[in-house]
Structures are given as C-alpha cells and as structure tokens.
Specification:
The protein has about 600 residues and is α/β, with parallel strands linked by helices. Helices cover about 35% and strands about 20% of the residues. The protein folds into 3 domains: about 1-15 and about 465-605, OB fold (Dihydrolipoamide Acetyltransferase, E2P); about 70-230, Alpha-Beta Complex (inorganic pyrophosphatase (n-terminal core)), CATH 3.90.1640.30; about 350-450, Roll (Diaminopimelate Epimerase, Chain A, domain 1), CATH 3.10.310. β2 (about 90-95), α5 and β3 form a beta-alpha-beta unit. Bound molecules: manganese (II) ion. Manganese (II) ion binds near residues 100, 153, 206, 207 and 243.
C-alpha cells in the first residue's frame, strides 16, 4: 500500500497585507530617500503612507521630533527654571527606580546642569519611597535647601505630596507620562502629554522621552552648548525601549538618535555597562536594550544599592564607570539567581494548577522580585498570576496576565475592598493587601478571572514580503534593515519563502532543528528554535513554505544568511497570490472589495 503524502499544517494563520496604491508624490518621496519598491510596500503596510511619514521614518531622525514648546506647561517649566538660575536656587530631580525613571533622572540632571543649575539627584527606593513623589524626598529637599523639585517619570498622581512640598515653600515641576487622575496635583507645572488639555502631537513619549523633550526646550539654542540636548538621546532611547513604548513616530526618532550615539560615542557609563555585559556597542539594537541593558539598570532597584545605576549613567570618568558597571553586573547576577530560585519556589507553591483560571501565591520573596515572578508564572502557566511578598507589612502584591486573558486593572478595581492601595494596567498591576485579607482576595480574584471573557492568545502572522528562496539575498537583508530599530509597534519584518525544497534536516541541541533549503545551486540555512518536531515531519526533497526572520550568521570567520523560522507548512497550502489589490476610493482600477478576504491556510488540512 502506498504511503499517503503527509501534509504539514501551519501553526498560525498567515496573512499578507494587501498592496496599497502608490501615488506619484509617494513614489517621488520614496525615490529621493532611495527606497526600492519592495521596501516601499512594506512601509505602506506599516502606516507610512504619506511623503512626510516616509521622511519621518527613514529620513533625518531629528525631523521626527516635535516642538517641545507644544508640551502642556512647557513655558511654566522653563520660566521657573530660568528664575531658579537667576536666584541661584538648588534643584532636586526626583526619579523612579525602573530603567525609564533612571534614564529620565540622569537625563534631566545632565540637562539642568548644562542649563547652569545646581542639581541634587534623588533616586527613590521601592520600599521607603514607592512610586511617585515621597515625603522623605520632600524632607531631603528642605534639608538640602532646594527651592524646586523636578519629578521625572512620576508625580502625576502625587497630589498630596506636591501639596505638602508647596506648603513648605518648594515649587514642584512634574514631568511625567502616566495617566492623569481626576484630582491632578496643584504643581507649578504639570508637563504630561496625557493631560486632557494637551495639544502635543504625539502622546506616546515615555518618562525619559518627556525629559528629553524638556532638555531640548531648555538647551536648544543655548550657547555654548547648541546641541547638548541631542547628546542626551542615548538615555532617552534606553528609557523608551525599556518602557516598552511603540517604536513609531517621535519615539522612533529618539531611538534612532540614541542608538547612533551609543554606536559612535557612548557616554562612559553606557560604554562600561555594555563592556561588562559583553555586548558589542557598534551593533547594539533595540532588542539588546530590552533584554540586556534594561534588566541591568533595573537590577539595582531590585537588589542591592538603588543609586548604583543612576551613578553609572551620570559617571563622567571611565575608571569610575568601570567600577560601578562591575558592581551593577554583580547585582544583575544576584537578581538572576534570586529570581530563578524564587520562581522555582513559587512554582512549587502553585503545584498543579489544573484548570484554575488564575494563580495567586504568597511567600517570603523580596518585593523587588515579585513582578518578575508573576511574569514568569503568567508566561509559563498562560494565565493571570498574582504574587505577594510577605516580608513587608502590609503584604505587597504584583500581578501579570498574558495579553488578552484578563484586564488586571479592571479585576483589581473589582477587588479593591481587600487593598490599602492598588493600581495598574490591563497586563500588569500592583497592590498593598489589608492584613488577613489574602484568602478572601484570592477567591475574589479567581472568580474575576473565571468570568472574564477569553480572547484568542495567538495573533495572526503578518507577512511583509513573500518570495521564492532564490530571491533571498543580502539586498533583501539590507532593505529590511532599514526598518530598524524594530520592536513594539514596529515589529521585526518576516518573509515568506515560498516553494522551497528541503535539502537537509537535522536535530540541533536544546530541542531546536536545523535545515537547509535549496537556493539555485546553493543552499540557505534555516534554524527552527524549539521545533525539534520538524525532524520527524519534514524530509529531504519536501517542498515547503517557510515564514521567517532574515538574519546573518557568523561562524568560523564567515558570514552567511540564515532564516530564523517562525512557521512552516507544506508548500502551496497558503496562496498569497490570491490577494486582490486594494484600491483607495477615487483611484483608477476596479472597485475595492467590501471587505478584504483574510488569507487563511485551508482549515481541513491537518498535519
Ligand atoms: Mn515610565
């Protein structure tokens, strides 16, 4: 009996964005920016559909920046600092202990010093200060004789603390990007692009982004340091990527400027941090900031000396920076070890979660780690997780939920009778628990999770370019590299390599799979992380469609192209050629279909 051919189905639903028409003006702009047609179509699907948007995306990154004077209270902020400078007043800059807050703090300190002010940095601690302006900081400002406190990445919710500072004769200039509550603080300035009355063109700035804009406001045109503000873009870029802001619009401009600065002339603290972490600074990208730089800056706020990271960012001397970077590297190792053992402990406490809609655990873990533990539990168990630290009184809780499972902000609001205080976003939230309320909170939270509407966890896979293996070359790699920096809001591009013939398949270590597909007379390497299953389901001579990220691989002094597999299916199951052209109303061509038919692999074919 003949073997039936085995079909390999895709794991996700692939879709190719429809091709939008290109106006003559857009074609001209693309030509002047050296954008080939293939890349132009990718950019169109990412919303770059006007000449201005194209220039902002790929042209001089300074063009992507807006006028900082448009920020609400920009004039009040500047005027108060001009007054402080004329009076010789000292300024306290009050930050936050995460990577956005720390970079914002360093950035604002450097900007105010360049503006001619005497500055006292204050790094809050998770325990003594918490998020937002703290009373201990106000007292410290009084002791240090500061007439003004400038907050960065926080302060919008610190209504009472701002009032206390004003009563004691200190003006507070709040600079922040967090949600503005109904009862906003009566600060001397509230610079926050999320204010209801704000007319700023792009509200997606982070704390470090807002600080960068204010550095631009203060220092642009200020002799003799004309471009001193641009030199601070590295700090703004790190804060922007670390705070998971979308890398589009002004944020993209900031990150491009900052990466450029890091590649060419990093400040001593950044150079030392990268060297200690073993990261080549010439190739640092947004990805490396989020997986290597941000966790190291955050480590200081979680274990050890909270001021370490801020001192490193502010270091002016290479030797001093190296010493601080070595200590930060040590703190990061400790953080990793503590996290690994705490996650293992928390996993033990959970045991077999069965069908439980959420997990809630408490243990003697450091407050600085509970967010990481909750994140790990929610990732591995694919459900909301709340983790409490019992080493503080009241117990401190931190919650994480996989995208689309449960709105934590809403769930915590529904459980608020158990809390002393709480706050958060749909995917991350925190709280202080009333003594003895743990069991009641747990059952309430789990019933919230049980009744929450479920949304599918796996998103469609949007293919940027579909082409045969023969067309995968360095030219394509170079074109796609122009989308960098990629990350949230501007995802790493994926290509669909269609009708490729497999020439070799073998198992690689750690459950990965390596294969090659033919590319004319040559072969193209494919690495499939975590897809050891393909060794059994794909054979030599099979024709497949592969969705992958295009990368280069360095091995033994040689560099070659490599496909990093995202998904794979038997060739021909997916038919991107069936995509109709999309026509805008008013342009020549057939009328637009009422709704673009989503491309899906034939559902009846199973692997
Ligand atoms: Mn922030």
């Amino acid at each position: 009996m003949a073997d039936l051919p085995v079909m390999l189905g895709p794991r996700r639903t692939w879709s190719l964005a429809p091709r939008a028409p290109v106006s003559p003006q857009l074609a001209d702009a693309a030509h002047s920016l050296g954008i080939p047609e293939r890349l132009l179509h990718v950019l169109l699907t990412r919303g770059c559909d006007t000449p201005e948007a194209l220039r902002s995306f790929l042209g001089d990154p300074v063009r992507a920046l807006h006028d900082p004077a448009l920020l609400p209270d920009a004039a009040a902020f500047r005027d108060r600092l001009v007054l402080a400078r004329s009076r010789g007043e000292r300024i306290m800059v009050y930050g936050d202990f995460d990577a956005d807050g720390l970079t914002a703090l360093a950035l604002m300190v450097l900007a105010l010093r360049a503006f001619g002010l005497e500055v006292e940095p204050y790094v809050p601690t998770r325990l003594a200060d918490g998020h937002g302006l703290s009373i201990p900081a106000v007292e410290r400002a009084l002791e240090a004789g500061c007439g003004v406190i400038v907050t960065v990445d926080c302060g919008t919710s610190s209504t009472d603390e701002v009032a206390t500072a004003s009563e004691r004769g200190i003006d507070v200039l709040v600079t922040d990007h967090h949600h503005v509550p109904d009862r906003a603080p009566g600060a001397a300035a509230l610079v926050n692009p999320h204010r209801a009355d704000a007319s700023y063109p792009d509200s997606r700035l982070t704390g470090a982004g807002v600080a960068f804009k204010l550095a631009q406001l203060l220092l642009a045109g200020e002799p003799p340091t004309r471009d001193a503000w641009l030199d601070l873009a590295d700090l703004a870029a790190i804060g922007t990527v670390a705070d998971v802001a979308p890398l589009v619009g002004e944020n993209r401009g900031i990150v491009r400027l900052g990466l450029d600065r890091i590649h060419t002339s990093p400040r001593p603290g950044i150079a030392a941090l990268l060297a200690a972490a073993g990261l080549p600074r010439e190739r640092l990208d947004a990805d490396a900031i989020s997986f290597a730089v941000a966790p190291r800056l955050n480590a200081a706020g979680r274990v050890g000396d909270v001021t370490l990271a801020a001192r490193l960012l502010l270091a002016t001397d290479a030797a001093e920076a190296e010493g601080l970077a070595a200590r930060l590297e040590e703190a990061n190792r400790t953080r990793r070890d503590l996290t690994a053992s705490a996650v293992a402990e928390a996993r033990d406490v959970v045991g077999d979660p069965g069908e439980a809609p959420a997990v809630v655990v408490a243990g003697e873990w450091p407050v600085g780690l509970i967010g990481l533990i909750a994140g790990r539990l929610s990732d591995t168990l694919r459900r909301p997780a709340v983790v409490f630290s019992t080493v503080v009184d009241p117990w401190r809780g931190s919650a994480r939920a996989p995208t689309g499972t449960l709105d934590l902000a809403a769930a915590f609001a529904a459980c608020q009778r158990h809390f002393l205080r709480f706050g958060g976003h749909p995917e991350a939230a925190g709280c202080d628990l009333l003594p003895g309320a743990f069991d009641r909170f747990r059952s309430d939270f789990i019933s919230q999770a049980a009744s929450a509407p479920r949304r599918p966890a796996v998103a469609d896979l949007v293919v940027d370019v579909a082409l045969p293996a023969a067309d995968v070359d360095y030219g394509l790699l170079g074109e796609l590299a122009r989308l960098e920096p990629v990350g949230v809001g501007n995802l790493a591009p994926v290509v669909a390599v269609l009708g490729a013939t497999v020439t070799r398949v073998r198992a690689a270590s750690n459950g990965h799979c390596q294969m090659t597909v033919s590319k004319g007379r040559e072969v193209l390497d494919v690495i499939a992380f975590g897809r050891g299953d393909l060794v059994a389901s794909v054979g030599q001579g099979d024709r497949v469609d592969i969705v992958a990220r295009l990368a280069t691989r360095r091995f033994g002094g040689f560099e070659s192209l490599q496909l990093e597999l995202v998904d794979i299916a038997t060739a021909g199951l997916w038919q991107p050629a069936a995509v109709p052209e999309r026509h805008e109303p008013g342009t020549a061509g057939p009328p637009a279909p009422a709704q673009h038919p989503a491309l899906v692999a034939a559902p009846e074919i199973a692997s």
